[in-house]
C-alpha cells in the first residue's frame, strides 16, 4: 500500500505517498500548501515565465487522491493559492476542476499567509478548524496540542549506502503533525533546519513521501 | 603599406628585439576586417595583436575607446594591462589602459562607461553586459579594433558564442570595427576564422613559425604503473627527482580530485621540503592568487594544477611540464606543453606519466600523434539556442529592438551564420511569452511588441534582472569551505553541495592539499578543522571529465593491430600479447564483446572505444535492454574504451541488444528521466533566462521558497514535451555528456561485425575494469529498496518497530 499508517493523539491516520493526510474514521483528506497559481504570480511580478502547468499538475494529483479515498471532507491547509490575485487568475478549466472535486463533499479552505482572505470559489473559508480532538491550522502555534499544520514545507534527508535521498516529509511528534507541501512548484525546508528542529519535540518521526512512503526518526 | 612608426621600431631596437615576421604580418593586415593569428606561447602573440593599436595611437589623437581586448580569464586581462603599460610608457604613449572584469569596483565601472579608456581589457561576460546598457552606443563610439585572446579556448564554449553575439552587436554600433583573434595551435584554423569573422567577411590566417618540436617523453619509473586508477602515486619518487632537476615544473592533472591526492602524496614524500604549490578552480581565490604570485616570483619549484593553468598567463620560468594521466586529447596536450619554456625557438620539454597500464598505451599513442602533428577535435556545430535566448533578452535590456534587424545582426556572428528565421522566432517567442503550448502569459509577457512593431520589455525593471543573470558559465552548487573559528576562519575553497551533503561530522577530506575534518554546516559554509585523524574521503569536484578523442582512440586501435609493440614498455606489451592469446584485441571495424563468469556473477565487457561519456551511455542503454529482456543486470562501469556490465545471466547472443533503433528508442525514454538531462536542462534553462541565478545578489538558501529545477523539467516534459528548452536540452545532452553521436558512429563503423567471445574467466584487458571507480548500480526499484532497508534499520536502532 502506498501509505504509512500511524497513531497521532489517539487517532489512526495515514500519510499518503503523495503528501496528503488521510483520516479514515472521519473520511477526511487534508492537503497543505497547494500554491496554486504560482507560475502566474511569478510572471506577473516580472520574474521568468515558468511552465504554466503547475496548477493543472497539482489538481491532477489531488484528483487522484480524492478519487482513491472518496472523502466526505477535504481540508486545504492554507497557502492554497500563491496569492489572492492568483486565485482570481486561475484558468476557467482549473476553476471547473476545483468545482468538480468539491461536488458532494465538505470543502474547507484554511487561510494561509499567502492567501489570507476569502476567495471566489466554493467551500468554507476558515482561519482554523477542529475535528474531533484535532485542530487544523496553517502555521503551528507554539505550545499547541493535537495540532495539524503546514506552512514549513518540511523535507527530510537520509543516507543509505552512500546515497543521499531527500523527500518532502510529514513530521510528527506527540503534540503536532506538520504536512509537506502538496503543490507542484514548492521547495522544502530540511527537518534539521533550526525552525523545525526546535518546533518538533523528541521523539519526533518523519515520513518521507514517494512511491512508497517510509517512516524514520526525524533527522535533526 | 604604412610603416610601423619609428617610435615603436626604436623602442624594439633599444630592447634589443626585432619585430617577428608574424608581428609585421599582423601590422600589414591592420585594416583587414578580420585576422586570425596562430602562434605558439612565447611568440610575441599579444604584441602582434596590439601593434596596430599602439601604432595608430602613436600617430593619431584618439578620443574615447580605441581597442577592446577580450580574454577568457580575468587574471589574463589584469596581466596584459601590466604587460602593456610598460611598453606604452617607454614608447611615450599617453594612453589609458584599464581592465574591466567581475573584480572591478562599481565606481570604476561607472566611470569607465562615461569616460572610457583607450584600451579596455575585459572578459566575454563583461563585454556582453556593457552592450546591455541603453547608452552602450556612447561608450563604444569610435572603437576601431577588438582583440580576442585564447580564441581557440573560447571557440569551444558557450562563452565564445556569447562573445560573438556581443561582437555582432558591437559591429552594428561601430561598423568599421576590425577583429583580431589570437590562438594557440589548433587542428582546424579555418573553423576558428569563420567563428571570429563577421559573416560573410573573409578572415586571413597568419601562422607564426611554430618553433621547434617539443621534446616529449614518457617518464621512466622504477615501479610499474598499476592496473587501474588515476592517482599515479607510483610515480611520486620519479616526479620528485624531475622537480629537483628543473627550475619550475608544472604538473597537470585531468581532474581536481586527482590533483588534490597527488599533491597530498607528493607533499608526504617531499623530504627536501621543496616549495610546491597547488592551483585549481575550486580553491579559494586568495589561495590561488598567492600561488600565482609565488610562481611569478619564481619561489615555487613545482605547481600541481588542472585546466585552470591551461591558458596563457606568463608564469615565469617554467622549464618542464609533466602530464599525469593520459592526455585524452592531443591538442590539449600540445597546448599544455607550450606552457613550458616561454623562450621562442627553444623546444619545450614535457613528460607524460600514465596513471595505469592502459594509459601507457594511450600515452604512447598521444606521443606518436603529437610527433606527427596530428591534432584532434570534434567539429562543434552551430551555436546553441539557449545563448541566443539570453542575447535576445540582453538586446531588450538595451532598448526596444526590431526583430528583423536583430535577426540580421545575429546571423553575422560566426556560430549563428546558419541560424534559420524560424529558429530565431522560436527563441524570440520563448523570451516574450515563455513559448508554451498553453498561452498563459498574454497579460504578463516578458517582451511585448509595440504598435510600431518594436519589441520591448513589459516591465523596464526587468532589465536589471537580466543583467544580473547574464553569462553562460554554470556555477555548480558549491559550498564554501572555511576553517572553523569564532569569527569565521580562513577560506580554503569550495566543494560540491552533494559532496557536502554526504559528510557527517568527523569525516575527513582533502582540500588545497590539506586533510581537514568536517565539523558542520553553518549558514551555507562547510566548517572544518585541521584535526584530521582518518584516511580522507576525496572531495568530488564537478570538473569536466574529458573523454578520449576519436582520433586518439583510433590511433590506439591501430596500435593494437600491430604484430608486436616495440614502442611500449615490456610489461604493457606482454599484457597485450596475453590478451591476444586468451581472447582478442579490439579492432577498429569490429566490436569485441567478452562474456565470462567471475565471482558468481556473469559479465559482459563491450570494447567500443567511444570515449567515457559514450561508453557510460552505452552502459545505461544496454542494461536497460537487458532488464527488458530478462538478463537481470546488476550494474556497470565505463571507461574511455570499454563498458563492463555484470548481472545474473550470461548473454549469448548480443545482436538483439545492439539494435540501433531499439537503442535509440531506449535513449529517448531513458533520457526523459535521466539525471544528466536534468542537469543539462538546468544549465540551458539558466542561460536562456527561465531560471534565475540570483535576484538581488542573494544565494538560494534552501528555504522553502525555492524549488528544484528538476520539477520544472518534469512538468515541462509531461505537459509540453516539444518545448524549445527541451529541444535545446536534448541537443546539448546528445553532443555533451550523453555523447550519443559517438555511439552512432561506432555502430555505423562496425555494422553487424560483432564478435562475442565466451571466456572461462576474466580477460587481461577486462581485469582493470573491476578496479575502476564510478560503478553505476542499475536502479529502477533500487532506491525504494534502499529506503526500505535503511528505514527498517533506523527504526530498529531507535528501538522502534517498523510500521
Automatic annotation (TrEMBL), chain A:
It comes from the Bacteria. It holds the Pfam family Metallophos. Residues 28-124 form the Calcineurin-like phosphoesterase domain. InterPro entries: Calcineurin-like_PHP, Metallo-depent_PP-like, PdeM-like, Pesterase_MJ0037-like. Transmembrane segments: none annotated. GO terms for molecular function: hydrolase activity. PANTHER family: BLR1149 PROTEIN (PTHR39323:SF1). This is Metallophosphoesterase.
UniProtKB/TrEMBL annotation, chain B:
Keywords: ATP-binding, DNA damage, DNA repair, DNA-binding, Helicase, Hydrolase, Isomerase, Ligase, Nucleotide-binding. GO terms for molecular function: ATP binding; ATP hydrolysis activity; DNA binding; helicase activity; ligase activity. This is DNA ligase-associated DEXH box helicase. InterPro entries: ATP-dep_Helicase, DEAD/DEAH_box_helicase_dom, DEXH_lig_assoc, Helicase_ATP-bd, Helicase_C-like, Lhr-like, Lhr-like_DEAD/DEAH_assoc, Lhr_WH_dom. SMART domains: DEXDc, HELICc. PROSITE patterns: HELICASE_ATP_BIND_1 (PS51192), HELICASE_CTER (PS51194). The keyword DNA repair applies. Residues 26-204 form the Helicase ATP-binding domain. Residues 235-383 form the Helicase C-terminal domain.
Amino acid at each position: 500500500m502506498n501509505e504509512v499508517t500511524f497513531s497521532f493523539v489517539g487517532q489512526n491516520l495515514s500519510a499518503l505517498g503523495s503528501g496528503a493526510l488521510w483520516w479514515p474514521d472521519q473520511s477526511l483528506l487534508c492537503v497543505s500548501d497547494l500554491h496554486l497559481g504560482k507560475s502566474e504570480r511569478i510572471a506577473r511580478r516580472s520574474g521568468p515565465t515558468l511552465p504554466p502547468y503547475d496548477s493543472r499538475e497539482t489538481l491532477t494529483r489531488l484528483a487522484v487522491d480524492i478519487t482513491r479515498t472518496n472523502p466526505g471532507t477535504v481540508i486545504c491547509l492554507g497557502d492554497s493559492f500563491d496569492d489572492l490575485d492568483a486565485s482570481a487568475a486561475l484558468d476557467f478549466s482549473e476553476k471547473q476542476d476545483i468545482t468538480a472535486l468539491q461536488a458532494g463533499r465538505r470543502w474547507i479552505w484554511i487561510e494561509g499567509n499567502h492567501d489570507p482572505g476569502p476567495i471566489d470559489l466554493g467551500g468554507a473559508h476558515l482561519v482554523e478548524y477542529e475535528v474531533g480532538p484535532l485542530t487544523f491550522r496553517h502555521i503551528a502555534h507554539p505550545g499547541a496540542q493535537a495540532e495539524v499544520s503546514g506552512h514549513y514545507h518540511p523535507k527530510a534527508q537520509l543516507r543509505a549506502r552512500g546515497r543521499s535521498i531527500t523527500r518532502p516529509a510529514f513530521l510528527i511528534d506527540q503534540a503536532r503533525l506538520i504536512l509537506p507541501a502538496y503543490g507542484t512548484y514548492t521547495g522544502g525546508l530540511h527537518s534539521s533546519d533550526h525552525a523545525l528542529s526546535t518546533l518538533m519535540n523528541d521523539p519526533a518521526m518523519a515520513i518521507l513521501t514517494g512511491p512508497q512512503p517510509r517512516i524514520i526518526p526525524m533527522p535533526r | 603599406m604604412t610603416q610601423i612608426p619609428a617610435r615603436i621600431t626604436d623602442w624594439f631596437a633599444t630592447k634589443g628585439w626585432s619585430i617577428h615576421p608574424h608581428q609585421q604580418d599582423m601590422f600589414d593586415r591592420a585594416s583587414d576586417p578580420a585576422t586570425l593569428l596562430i602562434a605558439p606561447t612565447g611568440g610575441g602573440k599579444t604584441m602582434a595583436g596590439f601593434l596596430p593599436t599602439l601604432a595608430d595611437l602613436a600617430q593619431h589623437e584618439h578620443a574615447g575607446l580605441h581597442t577592446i581586448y577580450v580574454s577568457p580569464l580575468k587574471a589574463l586581462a589584469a596581466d596584459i594591462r601590466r604587460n602593456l603599460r610598460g611598453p606604452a610608457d617607454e614608447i611615450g604613449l599617453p594612453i589609458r589602459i584599464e581592465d574591466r572584469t567581475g573584480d572591478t569596483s562599481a565606481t570604476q565601472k561607472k566611470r569607465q562607461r562615461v569616460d572610457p579608456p583607450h584600451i579596455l581589457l575585459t572578459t566575454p561576460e563583461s563585454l556582453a553586459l556593457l552592450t546591455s546598457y541603453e547608452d552602450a552606443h556612447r561608450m563604444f563610439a569610435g572603437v576601431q579594433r577588438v582583440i580576442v585572446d585564447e580564441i581557440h579556448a573560447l571557440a569551444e564554449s558557450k562563452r565564445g558564442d556569447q562573445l560573438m553575439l556581443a561582437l555582432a552587436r558591437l559591429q552594428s554600433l561601430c561598423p568599421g570595427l576590425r577583429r583580431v583573434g589570437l590562438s594557440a595551435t589548433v587542428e582546424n584554423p579555418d573553423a576558428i576564422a569563420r567563428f571570429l569573422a563577421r559573416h560573410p567577411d573573409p578572415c586571413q590566417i597568419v601562422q607564426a613559425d611554430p618553433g621547434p618540436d617539443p621534446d616529449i617523453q614518457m617518464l621512466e619509473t622504477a615501479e610499474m604503473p598499476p592496473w587501474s586508477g588515476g592517482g599515479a602515486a607510483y610515480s611520486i619518487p620519479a616526479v620528485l627527482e624531475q622537480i629537483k632537476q628543473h627550475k619550475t615544473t608544472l604538473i597537470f592533472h585531468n581532474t581536481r580530485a586527482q590533483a588534490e591526492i597527488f599533491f597530498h602524496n607528493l607533499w608526504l614524500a617531499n623530504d627536501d621540503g621543496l616549495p610546491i604549490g597547488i592551483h585549481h578552480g575550486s580553491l579559494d581565490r586568495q589561495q590561488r592568487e598567492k600561488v600565482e604570485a609565488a610562481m611569478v616570483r619564481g619561489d615555487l619549484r613545482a605547481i600541481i594544477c588542472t585546466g585552470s593553468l591551461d591558458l596563457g598567463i606568463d608564469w615565469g620560468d617554467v622549464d618542464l611540464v609533466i602530464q599525469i594521466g593520459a592526455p585524452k586529447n592531443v591538442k590539449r596536450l600540445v597546448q599544455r606543453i607550450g606552457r613550458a619554456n616561454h623562450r621562442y625557438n627553444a623546444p619545450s620539454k614535457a613528460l607524460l606519466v600514465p596513471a595505469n597500464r592502459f594509459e601507457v598505451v594511450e600515452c604512447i599513442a598521444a606521443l606518436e600523434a603529437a610527433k606527427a602533428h596530428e591534432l584532434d577535435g570534434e567539429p562543434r556545430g552551430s551555436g546553441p539556442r539557449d545563448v541566443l535566448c539570453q542575447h535576445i533578452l540582453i538586446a531588450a535590456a538595451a532598448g526596444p529592438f526590431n526583430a528583423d534587424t536583430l535577426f540580421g545582426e545575429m546571423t553575422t556572428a560566426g556560430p549563428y551564420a546558419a541560424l534559420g528565421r524560424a529558429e530565431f522566432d522560436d527563441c524570440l517567442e520563448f523570451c516574450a511569452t515563455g513559448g508554451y503550448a498553453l498561452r498563459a502569459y498574454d497579460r504578463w509577457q516578458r517582451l511585448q511588441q509595440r504598435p510600431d512593431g518594436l519589441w520591448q520589455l513589459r516591465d523596464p525593471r526587468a532589465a536589471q534582472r537580466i543583467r544580473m543573470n547574464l553569462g553562460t558559465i554554470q556555477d555548480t552548487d558549491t559550498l564554501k569551505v572555511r576553517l572553523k573559528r569564532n569569527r569565521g576562519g580562513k577560506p580554503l575553497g569550495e566543494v560540491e553541495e552533494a559532496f557536502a551533503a554526504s559528510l557527517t561530522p568527523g569525516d575527513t577530506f582533502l582540500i588545497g592539499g590539506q586533510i581537514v575534518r568536517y565539523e558542520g554546516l553553518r549558514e551555507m559554509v562547510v566548517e572544518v578543522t585541521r584535526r584530521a585523524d582518518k584516511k580522507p574521503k576525496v572531495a568530488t569536484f564537478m570538473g569536466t571529465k574529458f573523454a578520449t578523442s576519436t582520433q586518439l582512440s583510433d590511433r590506439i586501435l591501430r596500435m593494437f593491430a600491430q604484430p608486436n609493440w616495440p614502442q611500449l614498455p615490456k610489461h604493457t606489451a606482454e599484457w597485450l600479447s596475453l590478451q591476444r592469446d586468451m581472447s582478442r584485441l579490439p579492432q577498429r571495424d569490429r566490436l569485441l564483446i567478452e562474456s565470462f563468469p567471475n565471482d558468481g556473477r556473469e559479465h559482459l565487457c563491450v570494447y567500443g572505444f567511444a570515449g567515457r561519456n559514450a561508453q557510460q551511455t552505452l552502459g545505461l542503454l544496454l542494461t536497460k535492454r537487458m532488464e527488458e529482456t530478462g538478463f537481470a543486470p546488476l550494474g556497470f562501469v565505463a571507461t574511455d574504451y570499454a563498458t563492463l556490465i555484470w548481472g545474473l545471466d550470461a548473454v549469448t547472443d548480443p545482436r538483439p541488444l545492439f539494435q540501433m533503433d531499439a537503442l535509440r528508442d531506449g535513449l529517448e525514454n531513458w533520457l526523459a528521466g535521466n539525471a544528466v538531462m536534468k542537469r543539462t536542462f538546468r544549465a540551458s534553462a539558466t542561460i536562456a533566462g527561465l531560471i534565475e541565478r540570483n535576484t538581488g545578489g542573494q544565494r538560494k538558501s534552501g528555504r522553502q521558497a525555492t524549488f528544484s529545477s528538476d520539477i520544472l523539467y518534469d512538468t515541462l516534459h509531461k505537459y509540453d514535451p516539444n518545448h524549445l528548452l527541451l529541444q535545446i536540452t536534448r541537443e546539448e545532452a546528445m553532443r555533451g555528456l550523453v555523447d550519443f553521436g559517438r555511439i552512432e558512429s561506432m555502430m555505423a563503423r562496425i555494422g553487424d561485425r560483432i564478435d562475442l567471445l565466451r571466456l572461462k574467466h576474466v580477460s587481461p584487458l577486462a581485469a582493470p575494469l573491476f578496479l575502476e571507480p564510478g560503478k553505476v548500480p542499475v536502479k529502477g526499484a533500487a532506491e525504494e529498496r534502499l529506503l526500505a532497508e535503511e528505514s527498517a534499520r533506523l527504526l530498529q536502532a531507535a528501538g522502534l518497530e517498523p510500521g
